[in-house]
Specification:
The chain is of the alpha+beta class and about 55 residues long. The chain has one helix and three strands. The protein has a domain of about 35 residues. It has a three-stranded antiparallel sheet with strand order 1-2-3, with no helix packed on it.
Length: about 55
C-alpha cells in the first residue's frame, strides 16, 4: 500500500525562506530545501516525515 503524501503547506513546522535556491524550510528538522521538506525526508531516509503536525 502506498504511503499517503504529506502536504508540507498544512504543517505547522513548514515555512517559506528568503533564499531563492532553498525556498522551503522545516523548523522540526532544521533545514531548507529546493523541494518540499517531506520529499527530501522521504528521499533521504526512505520513510515518510514523522514530525508532521497540522496547523491550528
Amino acid at each position: 500500500m502506498k504511503d499517503a503524501q504529506i502536504n508540507c503547506l498544512k504543517c505547522k513546522y513548514f515555512y517559506i525562506t528568503w533564499d531563492k535556491s532553498f525556498p522551503n524550510g522545516c523548523r522540526a528538522y532544521g533545514f531548507k530545501s529546493a523541494t518540499r521538506p517531506a520529499v527530501m525526508v522521504k528521499q533521504s531516509s526512505g520513510t515518510a516525515c514523522l514530525k508532521f503536525k497540522p496547523k491550528g
